[in-house]
Specification:
globular, about 45% helix, 7 helices
């Protein structure tokens, strides 16, 4: 059987930010844009005071700025990193991403399209694709819980992987 089911109620990002939605209802979830943003953040994002910094690949800068504007009505500053000054958004990201060592439960129990968007954000910002036909991809991390969670999620997608402990390389 498919572990991802339908019938979820997608909570709009701004509503999440304003209402501090608890996700106690297992049929509540985030949308795929926020899933992508969480993946990018987990790969190379950080918070500093009331600021979120996304260290991103140039090819996704525009997409992230658009998600922040459309989802949260926040204008991001683009420099070396994408900078967002928002205490509420910083608290939101800390509560849904930083308190987890691995993939947040919120992502793990989301619809398949959200999980795939999360993976896209994670690999876009922290992964490497090798081979002419994308035969091999790697993700470097020292977070073994994240790598173990990722291995399970990818197995559920029919992608079998190995973790190389000596370098923290996931392939």
């Amino acid at each position: 059987t498919d572990i991802w089911s339908d019938g979820y109620q997608i909570i709009p990002p701004m509503q999440l930010l304003l209402e501090e939605h608890s996700f106690q209802n297992n049929k509540s979830c985030i949308d795929k844009d926020l899933g992508f943003l969480f993946g990018v953040f987990m790969a190379r994002g950080r918070t500093c005071g009331d600021q979120i910094l996304f260290a991103v690949a140039e090819n996704v800068t525009e997409k992230i700025v658009e998600i922040l504007k459309n989802g949260f009505n926040i204008d991001a500053k683009i420099g070396y990193d994408i900078e967002v000054n928002s205490k509420n958004l910083t608290n939101f990201f800390d509560s849904f991403c930083r308190k987890y060592d691995g993939i947040p439960d919120l992502i793990l129990r989301s619809p398949k399209e959200v999980v795939l968007s999360y993976l896209q954000g994670l690999f876009t910002n922290s992964g490497i694709i090798l081979g002419k036909d994308c035969q091999k991809w790697s993700l470097y991390s020292d977070n073994t819980k994240l790598l173990n969670d990722l291995q399970i999620v990818l197995a559920n997608l029919g992608i079998y992987t190995e973790i190389k402990d000596h370098s923290g390389m996931f392939s």
